[in-house]
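Task card 7
Instruction: Convert sequence to structure tokens.
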Amino acid sequence: MFDPTVFDNLKVAMENAVYDLDNLDSRINITQRTDRLEMSVMSREFGVQFSLREQSGVTAELQLKMDLNNLAAEILEMEDQTPGCSLLLYFDMKIREMETQCSQIENILTDIWKPELRPVQTLSQIYGEKTSTYQNRIELRFSRQINEDQMEDISELLEHVLLTLMELNKV
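Output:
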């Protein structure tokens, strides 16, 4: 009989909650979804990307990952290890004024998330194009893994993501 892993259970819970925000609540539009099994390193990855239905200028991406060590710890029921998944949050948006807007973005993320790890903003621009905008990919990292004990926190996590999207759309 198939026994779902921590990854499988979290993925289903997260996927259901996000799709409810799209299909039932009409608050977001899902723009991309990934579900990968990386055979070369035996890892799993699930991602879903979305934007607010009324403000599509900023997108959010949730990524859930489980590596071989955690997968093996769960399947082999290793007593000295607690299997879990990594959760990453990304926000993508265009900016024009690097110093001003990046500072505002960092303040918004700090106010909403109170992160242990500083958010990382990666700016990119296509060389040779005459443009005054940068693509800003904002990564919010967490210092610990999550497991089924945090499944009830998914709706609160998503509310924080929605609030972040609303605030970033104002920048």
